[in-house]
Design a protein that fits this description.
The chain has 208 residues and is an alpha/beta fold. Helix content is 56%, strand content 13%. It is built from 10 helices and 5 strands, in the order E-H-E-H-E-H-E-H-E-H-H-H-H-H-H. Helix 3 links the parallel strand 3 and strand 4 (79-83).
């Protein structure tokens, strides 16, 4: 059976261009191409597509909101976001909503077919710049999860190197009692109860 595709894109010229690309493939079938996602639930139920190409910025309701609605009905259908945006706010919002891949519109003519093949194989196609931002954002999120202060990170790092409280106090130019207070707060933030647990978590999650 041919691969059935739905397109949501508000720019008429680009919508026609993407539609033409889809119809070039003999084993693909364009089920519909729409300028907005206001009826996305009904269109999904009517056409039962195998794949959705979704613009992120549309009038009335965004592609991100539409993805969330689609996921409420279908958790497995591949959805590739098509957008001019390459900022991590839109990227992460789309991924959290349930997008399967993310492709900048400037790469459509050269990357669309490969991206579709990749997502159908279980992959998550992304433009290189998008992938870099996602990784950087994930790393930043991990670092900030526990809300450690710069001083707490410093002490946790010294603790992970096997330094005693006295040595940490000396190197940080603070009192022994202050070191103990910081370490108590570190334990609370990391949800651990011992130095071994704290160090293990810090190393495993790359907090130091």
């Amino acid at each position: 059976m041919p691969l059935s595709v739905l397109i949501f894109e508000d720019n008429p010229l680009l919508r026609e261009s993407i539609s033409s690309l889809i119809t070039l493939k003999e084993d693909w079938q364009l089920k519909g191409a729409y300028e907005n996602v206001l009826s996305v639930r009904e269109q999904l139920t009517e056409h039962k597509p195998d794949l959705i190409l979704m613009d992120i910025d549309m009038p009335g309701m965004s592609g991100i909101e539409a993805v969330a609605q689609i996921r409420a009905l279908n958790t497995t259908i591949p959805i590739i976001m098509l957008t001019v945006f390459d900022d991590n706010t839109h990227v992460l919002e789309a991924i959290r909503a349930g997008a399967s891949g993310y492709l900048l519109k400037k790469h459509l003519s050269t990357k669309l077919f490969d991206s579709i093949d990749e997502v159908l194989s279980g992959g998550a196609p992304m433009s290189p710049s998008i992938a870099r931002m996602v990784i950087a954002s994930m790393q930043k999120t991990t670092e900030n999860t526990y809300q450690l202060t710069p001083r707490e990170k410093e002490i946790l790092s010294l603790l992970s190197q096997g330094n005693s409280y006295k040595i940490i106090a000396s190197q940080s130019d603070i009192s022994l009692d202050t070191v103990r207070t910081h370490i108590k707060k570190i334990y609370e933030k990391l949800h651990v109860h011992s130095q071994t647990e704290a160090v293990s978590k810090a190393i495993h999650e790359k907090l130091v």
